[in-house]
Prior knowledge:
Blueprint lengths: L1 H23 L2 H16 L8 H10 L20 E5 L11 E5 H6 L8 E5 L9 E5 L18 H16 L2 H20 L1
Antiparallel strand pairs: 1-2, 3-4
Amino acid sequence: RKNWLESNKKQQREYKLKRYYQDRLTPSGRATHLLVAARRRVGSNKVTIKREIIIAALKNGYCQRTGLKFDLETPHNAFAPSLDRTDPSKWYSPENTKVVVLIYNTAKGEWKHSDILCLAKSIAGGIPMGAIVTSDRISGGVGKHGSTFGGNPLACAAFLASMRFIEENNLVTSSREKGEYLSQELSRVLG
């Protein structure tokens, strides 16, 4: 009997977790999540935008500021939908709220394109790895950004080997020279 109860509890937890993520993958479920999060941030009486407006924006599929496509498949990522207040001094009303990609809200008004450089894929010679490089203006210091799989020894060793190869073979200088040559030739041919 005890094993059956434990097994049943585990199945219920798995079902609830699966349901939670499935709900967030639909426009309707994601709209509910966005409203709940906004109400937590500013209070229920300060969120007057209707769920239907958010659902319509999510069904459209594109950020209302950048035009980038929403990613509803993964609950937490840079292209997940987020609510943006046009005027931060006002509340979440239909006139003051846009549905945007999360990365827009993250970077809005504080950073420039030159402040952050995102690197991935080839930096570790095909081993999955990503990194961010920031300017001093917004740098949070070493170790202030992390991830679940951050610091994987295999990926870090592959990254170091890739960087060593790039430096030893002067690939940065070579790339710049070839880019300048290509630009000159294209200008010459295309006039």
